[in-house]
Every structure is written in structure tokens, then in C-alpha cells.
Design goal:
Length: 165
Amino acid sequence: MLDFDAYISRIGLDRADKPTWQAVHRAHATTIPFENLDSHRGIPISLEQADLERKLVASRRGGYCFEHNLLLASALEYMGLQVEPMLARVRVGGAPRATRPAGHLVLRATDVDGRQWHADTGFGLGTLLDPIPFGPTGVHEQSGWSFRVVDDDDELSLQTRGRMD
């Protein structure tokens, strides 16, 4: 990450408070909006670190999954985690996976204790607010949203149920 202090400020945290990586995930998810305006306007999107920081941090814009999660990955790596970007597919309802390409980016983060986490701040409505343990581990409630990972043949599937109020 080129300017961690600017990133932390952008997501509303104070570096002096020594935020945890989980707090960084939540602050990122609740501060930087999902936005895919450039791609719809035919404007090329750069995934270079300097360009991500310029757009999402300095210009205070949002981005889509690759932009969000690559920016988050660089912050988590700066904080000492190992991060593996992973391609995923988005399926709505019971749509068969063969009908959807792997066009979403998620992160598998490994903390200093060797625990693996599913991190994703780039899904828009219904994105994880907090990281959850990687793999099938039951239901995780987050601010009225329910998340769980289930085995889906040879893949894992993150299922989300939104707020009912």
C-alpha cells in the first residue's frame, strides 16, 4: 500500500487507535461505496495500486469488486496478513453455476495465528461487513444479515440472506 495513513483516514479510522484488520474490513465495507459507473461509461479501469488509491482514497469514489478487494488486500498485507485473491462467481437464487462466469473477486486472508478468513468488501448490497472464517462454519449474523458458506460440489458457495425489516 502506498499511503496507508490516507486509506485509514478515508475509511474513518484513526491510526493512533491501532485498528484491527477486522475493524479495517468493516470500515471499508461501510465507507467506500460500490460503484461501477466507469465501466458502464466505457472508461477503462486500472487495477494498479496507485490508480486504486487515487480513485477510491484520494478522489473519494467507489469501485467494483476487483477495485475494492485489491485495495483491501494491500491494506491487509500492510497489516501483516497473507492475502490470496480468488475468483468467484455470482449466482442469484438457485441459478446453476455453469451459467455464470467467475467474474467476482474475493479474498482469503490468513492472520498471524494461521487462521483463514473470507474477506469481501466489494459485493455492494449484501457484502460482508466483517470477515468470516473461511469454509463451511455455520451461520454468521452481521447487523441483520445472515451469511454462511456451504459445500457446493467442488466449490464453496457463500449464501446471503438480507434484512427482513
